[in-house]
Amino acid sequence: MSVDAKVIESITKQTYESQNQHLRFFARAELPMKLQILQLQKPLFHKLKSIYGDLDNAILTLASLILAINSVAKETDKVNLNAVKMRGKNQKTKVKRQKLLGYWAIVRTLKLEQNMSFRNIAGYFKKYHKLEVSYSTIHGLWIEIETTTTKNEEN
Questions:
Q1: How far apart, in whole angstroms, are the C-alpha atoms of residue 22 and residue 15?
Q2: How far is 20 from 59, CA to CA, in rounded Å?
Q3: Shortest CA distance to 59 belongs to which of 1, 15, 10?
Q4: Pairing with 44, which of 60, 87, 105, 137 sits 20 to 30 Å away (CA)?
């Protein structure tokens, strides 16, 4: 671990992993919460600058940001905190859905012509396209797209 990382740990009194958790929280937060954190970060920076005047401003900026995120996270109630955490997870599934939609012709071919199961299709994408997607995601999209297409063709 570098000297700078140890200095930041001593200032924030948080482990490296805990600091990263706070930064991930910041990345997933909505804009108003990010602005609230940044408004709190500025006075914290100046407070740290008066205490640790000999340290580099970049180190103090990062430390003050982590402290500001920690402060806002503590003020935020559990429900909103969990909602922010879930938002990041939902974003990943949206990206995978979009990628899968780009490969939909392959999914249809494998399912209809090769008679592969959704688990096998998921394995195919992992092996040949380096796309890790669960079989349930493929199945859900299949139901959503193919049943809608079939119903529209009947009408």
A1: 11
A2: 15
A3: 10
A4: 87
